[in-house]
Write a structure and sequence with these properties.
single chain; 240 residues; alpha/beta; Glycerol-3-phosphate (1)-acyltransferase; seven-stranded mixed sheet; 8 helices; globular
């Protein structure tokens, strides 16, 4: 019963936070071209959501980052908490690529658009490729960093799924550093296909930036494997 009440408490906080924040985002977001103000609002909302869960986040490696730099953050995908954990933990205006269906959700989807999130059509290969171009344009025009989860979806097992190449193509074309981020413990707290959240701690490990300026697009697999190996290694450390 306690778990049910806790879930109701969390959903209520998410709903109230969304109702309060989205109208503000709609008023400000479309005029805040650099996304400096909306970035702070999005971090506030995600911190609100995580506060309501009572989950502790252990952030490591913050000293690897330069506050003046834009980054492509690339991480493993354990649970629905991965995005709020990353956005709340990183002191940057972070946007992410999201499937187009999420943008049709009343209030929530409108807020995503106003905050500068980038739409991806996963059902159409050509349109999905064009999302890389949209992300490049956003990086050039706004004071943002981008977070991507190249597995594409959450796994039912502790093993990581194969990485898709889009994130690495984006990093090479933009010339921005990749920062591997490793999330551990989120799967146990928020298992797939359930709304219930268990208590626990999430480890959020920020790796050292990997420069992409020397890479050609033909070397995307090499870069992919390098980032994946770092994330696998950090996952192993937290699980040992």
């Amino acid at each position: 019963m306690t778990s049910i009440f806790r879930s109701i408490w969390i959903i209520t906080n998410m709903t109230v936070g969304t109702i309060i924040e989205v109208p503000i985002l709609l008023c400000i977001g479309f005029f805040d071209k650099r996304k400096n103000i909306t970035g702070g609002l999005v971090r506030f909302w995600n911190n609100w959501v995580l506060w309501s869960t009572g989950i502790h986040i252990n952030v490591q490696g913050m000293d690897n980052l330069d506050a003046r730099q834009q980054y492509i953050f690339i991480g493993n995908h354990e649970s629905a908490l991965d995005i709020p954990v990353a956005v709340a933990s990183l002191p940057f205006n972070v946007v992410f690529l999201a499937k187009k269906e999420l943008f049709t959700i009343p209030l929530f989807g409108w807020g995503m658009s106003a905050a500068g999130m980038i739409k991806v059509d996963r059902q159409n290969r050509d349109r999905a490729k064009r999302s890389v171009g949209s992300a490049l344009e956003a990086l050039e025009k706004r004071n943002i960093s981008i977070i991507m989860y190249p597995e594409g979806t959450r796994s039912y097992t502790p093993e990581m799924l194969p990485f898709k190449k889009g994130a690495f193509i984006l990093a090479i074309r933009s010339g921005l550093p990749i920062v591997p981020i490793t999330i551990s413990g989120a799967r146990e707290i928020a298992p797939k296909n359930t709304l219930r959240l268990h208590r626990g701690e999430i480890n959020f490990i920020i790796g050292k930036p990997i420069q992409t300026t020397g890479y050609e697009e033909s070397q995307r697999n090499e870069l992919l494997l390098k980032v994946r190996d770092i994330i696998e290694s950090d996952r192993g450390k937290t699980n040992s």
